[in-house]
Amino acid sequence: MLSSVTSADGGAAVTTVRDCSDQLLRGGQKSGVYLVTPDLRSRSFQVLCDMELDAGGWTLLQRRQDGGVSFNRTWDEYRSGFGELDGGEFWLGNNMMHLLTRDRDMVLLVELEGFDGVMEYAEYEHFRVGSERMRYRLTVGAYSGTAGDALRFSKSYDHNNRAFTTPERDNDRYPSGNCGAYYSSGWWFDWGATRECEMGYTGKRGVTYPQSIIQPIKGSHLKLSG
Ligand SMILES: [Ca+2]
């Protein structure tokens, strides 16, 4: 026979806040910095939550808006994250991205903003970042959106399944050099049919997104939702 279950504190069971969507469910309806624990065996860390877009619950992975923060960083810096979560530019950190995406089916949203205020977006199903042992390998599924698919543009231009590269750690498929050093940035670099380093959203000129009709791009966000 079924009976109602009451937890030890007499109320609803206390659940761990794994990401911003959990924070939203717990009543955190204001955008801002929150502490999350996606993996109980790892330390909690701070993330910026967007609680306004599409009913909220988005966890920010990256923000670029004015070039105020250099993305010319080492492997260790990309691993742990850098920049300013609260108001500035930042990279949340590859370890954090791994923990956030390891056990849950996630959607990646890329938002691009032009200098004239025009916004475009690209959305990918089944976004996942592998562990450091896997060199933070990127997985992305089906694309939808208005910005064009710059992550899986063609067979010779495909960031899916690529390892992460930084200016001093070459994991790209470009045999004659390091795309991270060339673009002064970390990314899941591939290499294209033109034998140049194909890239996504970061680089020494700020934000680049080859498929976008917005050129140049003023800023970008990477956001995650369950
Ligand atoms: Ca290379």
UniProtKB/TrEMBL annotation:
Residues 11-226 form the Fibrinogen C-terminal domain. GO terms for cellular component: fibrinogen complex. It comes from the Eukaryota. Keywords: Disulfide bond, Glycoprotein, Secreted. InterPro entries: FIB_ANG-like, Fibrinogen-like_C, Fibrinogen_a/b/g_C_1, Fibrinogen_a/b/g_C_dom. It is found in: Secreted. It holds the Pfam family Fibrinogen_C. PROSITE patterns: FIBRINOGEN_C_2. The keyword Secreted applies. The keyword Secreted applies. One of its GO terms (molecular function) is extracellular matrix structural constituent. This is Fibrinogen C-terminal domain-containing protein. The lineage of its organism: Eukaryota, Metazoa, Chordata, Craniata, Vertebrata.
